[in-house]
């Protein structure tokens, strides 16, 4: 069940040059899908994520991104994302065009995309230098009150990729825990791929749970552990030690290339990746 | 510094918390004098009560201990923009005399010397919270006369310029550093030193500020931490250190 399903889904739906949103706000980050995109050699991607996190640090460092849209690009609680910084500061491994927002702005942009509106509106950005460096942030005069409000263009990824706890056999997906802007990113996309911890006969979702009905879902692949080193509420915890250890692994270009070559590109699927990292005598997080 | 910041948080306040020093201070407040404080993290966790300090803004324990876990657009629209936040608690890389903050770049935006993480929730937290507290270390590198990049608005150019924009929130009312406490002066809205820690001379605070620092007359001395505050804080940091060092190895997958 795991592995081949994800390979096929990425092969069928993810193309060079696309705008991809691999969302998950600290939680349920689709690392397995990201790594499969790297294994299949996708290039020239426009990556969209509120927080690039290690997942885009890896993809940017691997050279598959031409552009990044984001709102906060650090290693949470640890420090910098070194590969992101290298791309922005030094153009390594290749120049990266950045479009920078605030969290509130990106939330409004995804919501607009999900709602089939051309822009999101919010009280924000005013007086900040973000407006000077991002010409996509504009403003509108309220037709009722005359006040000025900030606008951001709708985010409409070609493909949104998520990780979730479970799906049923018909393709309905259940997310629980911190859900970030995943639902909005899902509805805003032209295609939605979801990796899940398990596929079940009956979704058994509480009435007001966050469910992505099958009509919105393009493909589901069962990939247990698919969010590691991020976490899946109810399945495994966030590996904070790994996140801290990434600071050292990724600080140096060669060290980064070696780690990615060994564990991601040198393995054939996510199960292989997990075994490979576990097998290291000293885990990356120690 | 953490204790001084924690003391500013009133019991029952609804507080939007940034990661790092703000989170330590807010949780210390909750564990000491403000057990009813409602902590909100931008990951959508409302009323989180973690046993250890979260490493990230979306750690699992925040979700497990929260009263409610809501989608991120809801936290920014209904809670923050909706005007329901009493205190926004922020950190920063640079601050200027009017409490504006930089977390974006050192140097030029197009070719930065140092690319910092960026805005995150800060601009809207500062725009909407009824007041913001800023906590950061004080040095000529952090307290600068002019920001390399204005990520987050404090009092803009001072003298009422922020409120004339119609920005709803109250702005940075308190800045807590490792040397003392600053608040905006009436009228000019320029930050001035109103208190120092017992072992810090006013001259030290002046030397650590990249602009001519105004001081209140007199500059008060911050009451030292109590034994209880120190005990709770040390226990919290120790529990946190152990938890964050604990590896959570990749889940074992046994094969198809």
For the residues shown, what is the average pLDDT of chain B? 94
Number of separate domains of chain B: 1
CATH topology call of chain B: Glutaconate Coenzyme A-transferase
Distance between the termini of chain A: 32 Å
Number of strands of chain B: 14
Describe the structure.
The complex is a heterodimer of chains A (286) and B (256). By secondary structure, chain A is of the alpha/beta class. Chain A has one domain: 3-Layer(aba) Sandwich (Glutaconate Coenzyme A-transferase), CATH 3.40.1080. Helix content of chain A is 33%, strand content 23%. Chain A has ten helices and 14 strands. In chain A, helix 1 packs across helix 2 (31-39), helix 3 packs across helix 4 (82-90) and helix 5 (103-114) packs across helix 7 (182-188). Chain A starts with a helix and ends in a 7-residue tail after the last helix. The mean pLDDT of chain A is 95. Chain B is an alpha/beta fold. In chain B, strands 4-3-2-1-5-10-11-12-13-14 form a ten-stranded mixed beta sheet, with helices on both faces. In chain B, strands 6-7 form a two-stranded antiparallel sheet. A two-stranded antiparallel sheet of chain B has the order 8-9.
């Amino acid at each position: 069940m795991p592995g081949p399903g994800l390979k096929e889904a990425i092969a069928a739906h993810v193309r060079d040059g696309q705008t991809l949103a691999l969302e998950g706000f600290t939680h349920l980050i689709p690392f397995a899908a990201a790594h499969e995109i790297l294994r299949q050699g996708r290039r020239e991607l426009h990556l969209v994520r509120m927080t690039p996190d290690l997942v885009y640090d890896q993809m940017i460092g691997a050279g598959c991104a031409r552009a990044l849209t984001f709102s906060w690009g650090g290693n949470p609680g640890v420090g910098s994302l070194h590969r992101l910084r290298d791309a922005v500061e030094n153009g390594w491994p290749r120049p990266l065009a950045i479009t920078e927002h605030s969290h509130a702005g990106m939330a409004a942009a995804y919501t607009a995309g999900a709602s089939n509106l051309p822009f999101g509106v919010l009280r924000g950005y005013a007086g900040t230098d973000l407006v000077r460096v991002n010409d996509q942030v504009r403003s509108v005069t309220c037709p009722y009150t005359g006040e000025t409000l900030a606008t951001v263009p709708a985010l409409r990824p070609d493909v949104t990729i998520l990780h979730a706890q479970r799906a049923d056999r018909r393709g309905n997906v259940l997310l629980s825990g911190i859900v970030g802007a995943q639902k909005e990113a899902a509805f805003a996309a032209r295609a939605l791929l979801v990796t899940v911890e398990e596929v079940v006969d009956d979704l058994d979702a509480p009435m007001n749970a966050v469910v992505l009905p099958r009509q919105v879902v393009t493909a589901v692949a069962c990939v247990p552990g698919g969010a590691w080193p991020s976490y899946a509420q109810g399945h495994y915890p966030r590996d904070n030690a790994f996140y801290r250890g990434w600071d050292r692994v990724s600080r140096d270009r060669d060290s980064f290339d070696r780690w990615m070559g060994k564990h991601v590109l040198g393995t054939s699927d996510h199960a292989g990746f997990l075994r490979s990292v576990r097998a290291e005598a000293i885990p990356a997080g120690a | 510094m953490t204790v001084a910041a924690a003391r500013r948080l009133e019991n029952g306040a609804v507080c939007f918390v940034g990661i790092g020093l703000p989170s330590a201070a807010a949780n210390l407040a909750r564990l000491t004098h403000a057990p009813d404080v409602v902590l909100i993290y931008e990951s959508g966790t409302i009323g989180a009560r973690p046993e250890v300090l979260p490493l990230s803004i979306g750690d699992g324990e925040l979700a497990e201990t929260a009263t409610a876990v809501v989608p991120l657009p809801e936290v920014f629209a209904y809670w923050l923009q909706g005007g329901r936040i009493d205190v926004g608690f922020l950190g920063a890389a640079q601050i200027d005399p009017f409490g504006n903050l930089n977390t974006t770049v050192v140097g030029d935006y197009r070719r930065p010397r140092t690319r910092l993480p960026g805005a995150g929730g800060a601009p809207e937290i500062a725009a909407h919270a009824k007041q913001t507290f800023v906590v950061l270390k004080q040095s000529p590198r952090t307290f600068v006369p002019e920001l390399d990049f204005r990520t987050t608005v404090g009092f803009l150019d001072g003298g009422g310029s922020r409120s004339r924009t119609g920005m709803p929130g109250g702005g940075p009312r308190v800045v807590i550093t490792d040397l003392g406490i600053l608040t905006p002066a009436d009228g000019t809205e320029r930050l001035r030193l109103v208190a120092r820690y017992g072992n810090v001379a006013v001259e030290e605070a002046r030397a650590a500020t990249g602009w001519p620092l105004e001081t209140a007359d007199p500059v008060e001395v911050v009451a030292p931490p109590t034994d209880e505050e120190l005990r709770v804080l040390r226990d919290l940091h120790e529990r946190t250190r152990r938890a964050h060092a604990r590896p959570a190895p990749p889940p074992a997958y046994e094969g198809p």
